[in-house]
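Explain this record to help learners:
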Amino acid sequence: MSAQPTILVVDDERELADLYAMWVGEDYEVVTAYDGTTALEQMSDAIDVVLLDRHMPDITGDQVLQEIRASDYDCWVIMVTAVDPGLDIVELDLDDYVTKPVTRAQLTRIIENLRVQSRYGDDDRRELESISNKMETLEDEHSVEELTDTEAYQQLESELKEMSDSLVDDLDK
C-alpha cells in the first residue's frame, strides 16, 4: 500500500457513500461508486481499501467482492452493511464486516488497523486477521453456544487454530 491509501466507497445510498467519503477523504484518496457496476468499473490496482455495501439493486456486494477477488486485485475489503451477519460470511473472502450504523471513529479505526497489518505484507497474517474478524463479527451477533454447534463456525475455529499454530512455529524457527 502507498503512504496514502486510495479507498473506494461503494453504497447505493448516496448520502451514506458521500458521508463515508467525507470522513475518510481528509486522510485518504477517495473514489466513490453508488452501485456495483460502477464499483467494478472504478476498480484498479490503485485501490487499496474497498468499503462495500452488501445489498445494492444492480449487483450485490457479495458479487462485487467475488469479481474483485477473481480479478486478483490486492486490496482490503470491508463490508459495511445493514445486513446482520450470518454464517454465510464464513465463505466470503473479505477482511472485515461492519454492521450499520457505523461511526466515523469505527471506520477510521478499521482502516488504520488494516494499514498497520499491511506493513507486515504477510498473507498468512492477513488471513488470520480475516478469520479473527469474522469470528468476532459472528460472536457480536450470536451467542457462542449457538455458534459452536455450527459446522461453519467450527471451520473458522479450526482454521484459526491451524493458522495460529503455524505462525507460532514460524516464530520459533
Q: What stands out?
A: The beta strands are 6-10, 29-33, 49-52, 76-81, 96-99. The CA atoms of residues 166 and 172 lie 10 Å apart.
